[in-house]
Amino acid sequence: MTRPTLSAAALGSALAAALSAAALPALADTSDKRIALSNNYAGNSWRQAMLTSWETVTKPAVEAGIVAAADAFTTGENSATEQAAQIQNLILEGYDAIVLNAASPTAINGAVKEACDAGIIVVSFDGIVTEPCAWRIAVDFREMGRVQVEYLAGRLPEGGNLLEIRGLAGVFVDDEISAGIHAGVEQFPQFKIVGSVHGDWAQDVAQRAVAGILPSLPEIAGVVTQGGDGYGAAQAFAAAGRPMPIIVMGNRQDELQWWKEQKDANGYETMSVSIAPGVSTLAFWVAQQILDGREVPKDLVVPFLTITQDTLEANLETTPVGGVANVEYTLEDAVAVIEGAN
Amino acid sequence: MRLSPDLIRLAVPFLALAALLAGVFWLQPRAMSYTGLNLLFNLAVPIALATLAQMFIIAVNDLDLSMGAFVSFAACVTATFLHDTPVLGALILAASVAAYAALGVVIHLRGLPAIVVTLGMSFVWLGLAVMILPAPGGAAPAWLRALMTVRPPLLPMALAASILIALVAHLIIARSALGVLIRGVGGNERSVARAGWSVLRAKAAAYALAGLFGVLAGMALVGLTTSADANIALRYTLLSIAGVILGGGEFVGGRVSAVGAVVGALTLALAGSFLSFLRLSPDWQIGAQGAILILVLALRLGLDALERRRRGRA
Q1: By C-alpha distance, which of B111, B261, B246, B257 is closest to B189?
Q2: Residue A49: inside a domain, yes or no?
Q3: Which of A138, B192, B232, B236 has the fewest beta carbons closer than 10 A?
Q4: In the prediction, which pLDDT does A19 show?
């Protein structure tokens, strides 16, 4: 990989691009800075979308001269020791910043510390690391659970019975979203969770689990979910011949497709919320901003991607079959997130 | 001049390491420094220790499929008990070494296949590791962290530690009476028994040594990573076996080399870095790593065949 030689004109246009994009004075020049993405796993559609987003956003940024390089590295195996070795290699390659989705929140702390000691900016996202010298772009899974109940409170002021579909038992994300949902129910006491099943974030599992518990449940007003389970729940309700509750969706293509069909047929209304794989691009811009000299708090919260009745069609159109709705972040988005945390 | 087969056996892993190192230096001159060498090799130290542990098992013609899980378990104990209550932690680690020795005894007395027993044990160790550390975390004891990040003069920690552990293991397996006995069991169990030695004791000792080096691998790993994860070292099972074979060891016959095993482990660790510096797509990296392994083994087999032919002529 050759480093592009920068003429004064290119430098100027790069600065102009950076300026117009940010509408903020660049504090320092990042056109000679190199950013690496360290990724531990690429084996599902979410991670594939994450890597594609990285490519889509960083390529023009490199071409515009905002940064000198933004290379993505994925370890061959999903293991913490391998990722630690990978990070040490990236240190040796002299990158100025490492953006990483970590295999373990703790087991690569040693390598992250080595990177910090070498003067490298480390920004972790999605799979964050606990090492204090690194930045963290975390997902507020609790809030993701709570907003679902808040939305239902807006739709059903008089409240009602809720069915909760949880994720994979024993996983941190499942506990967090569920805690958020329960906090939401406390905030809006007109709702009552009358049943709870594990859908493992998979449509078929969710459908079986909901079909199994439905006969024992009273009328359900709303279904709160964790993503990847809404379509299965809808199928179970339809098969049982029960009135269709408001099912909160999770941005998967099949969920959005079903929602669209219902909306066209009978004006069905709901919302959909999940994390966009494009969060990798947010991390990229945050790293660029830190390199630019901006004061950035160590803990940032990633906004989740919410799809409403009005934005359904647009999102469905851009979501590939079998995929997840995605959004790629811009420099302004990153600046907004940073400002929001300050 | 005639080279002895053993010397050739030992020369191959060194040559492979030197070739890879030259490649890395060429691709990334920054690696050619004190810090660079340390970064390249420090994660190889726990792999080298795990490889030595595996070597003691292979020396008695057995194979340990639980090495990765055991190192993970030791890492979890180190990051929790050894950090919070050092005495209890040390006791647990000592007990796990004793468990390894007991495993050797059971395998020998009941004539069980070690592969099956250790495969079963891998689930036991992993289960215990998850029980100790259900979520990733823990912290490395300060002294251990200091030991693994020490910056000795002249030689980086990673290389100094590798030389030291290779030397210690070499003294045990090649120079001590116990080492001769262990290799003897691997070479010809019956003649060792006939000569009046206790095969049972030799196997127990080999397994205990494996347990000890496995514990050291877990501790070294936590010293580097600063905390543990129940799945942290699962790759070590296959890495350790590959390291022993790459370093000139053989699955049967008690033919193992401690120095070779350490060099083999370093080579494996370096192969990953080399491919990463080459900017090879990750989809190809695993395959390429395998190709390097096969290349080195082929080289060794070729040299072996050459040696045999020369001997046949003489």
Answers
A1: B111
A2: yes
A3: A138
A4: 43
- Predicted pLDDT at B296: 81
Residues A229 and A285 in one domain: no
Grouping H, G, I as helix, E, B as strand and the rest as coil, residue A194 is strand
- Which of A82, A92, A171 would you mutate first to test chain B, the one with the most B CBs within 10 A? A92
Encoded tokens for A282: 């947010």
- Decide if B101 contacts B211 (C-beta within 8 A): yes
Complex ipTM > 0.85 = no
Whether A108 and A164 share a structural domain: no
| Domains, chain B | 5-306 (1.10.3470)
Determine, for residues B276 and A73 on separate chains, whether the beta-carbon distance falls below 8 Å: yes
For position B314, what pLDDT does the model report?
54
Q: How far apart are CA A24 and CA A10, in angstroms?
A: 19
Nearest to A75 among B134, B277, B282 (CB): B282
- Rounded CA Rg of chain B: 20
Is residue B46 within 8 A of residue B102, CB to CB? The reply is: no
Question: Mind listing the pLDDT tens digit for each residue in B29-53?
Answer: 888 899 899 989 999 999 999 999 9
Q: How many domains does chain A have?
A: 2
Centroid of chain to Cα A79: 21
Are B228 and A104 within 8 A, CB to CB?
no
Chain B: residue whose CA lies nearest to A104: B136
Q: Is the Cα torsion angle A127, A131, A135, A137 positive or negative in sign?
A: positive
- In this structure, the number of other CB atoms found within 10 A of the CB of residue A313 comes to 12
Q: Are residues A146 and A232 in the same domain?
A: yes
Q: Is residue A310, in this structure, part of any structural domain at all?
A: no
Closest CB to A106 among B134, B229, B273: B229
For A240-257, what is the HEC assignment?
Answer: HCCCCCEECECCEHHHHH
Looking at the structure, do residues A131 and A189 belong to the same domain, yes or no?
no
DSSP symbol at A2: P
CB contact under 8 A, B226 and A94: no
* Amino acid (1-letter code) at residue A179: A
Binned at pLDDT 50, 70 and 90, residue A160 comes out as very high
Q: Which domain holds residue A147?
A: 141-274
Count of other CB atoms within 10 angstroms of residue A217? 14
Which region among A216-225, B23-32, B156-165 has the lowest average model confidence (pLDDT)? B23-32
Specify whether the CB–CB gap between A154 and A116 falls below 8 A: no
